User: Which sequence fits this backbone?
């Protein structure tokens, strides 16, 4: 009886951890999407090509760094 209770608790803990990890991934991707939308709006405002290229490179590097988590 006690072993089944321990097994059920262990399973519930694993499910909670999976749900927590999923929530972190969802929040992370949501923040990335908002970040990219803000900067695409910023591209429309800026007409200077050199500045656009610089921002594109910075965004690409930031996206690469953030997606490594």
Assistant:
């Amino acid at each position: 009886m006690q072993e089944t209770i321990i097994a059920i608790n262990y399973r519930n803990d694993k499910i909670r951890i999976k749900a927590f990890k999923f929530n972190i991934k969802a929040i992370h991707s949501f923040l990335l999407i908002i970040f990219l939308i803000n900067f695409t709006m910023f591209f429309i405002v800026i007409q200077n090509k050199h500045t656009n290229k610089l921002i594109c490179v910075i965004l690409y590097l930031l996206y690469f760094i953030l997606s490594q988590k």
Notes: Helices lie at 2-45, 49-66. The two ends are 41 Å apart (CA to CA). The longest helix spans residues 2-45.
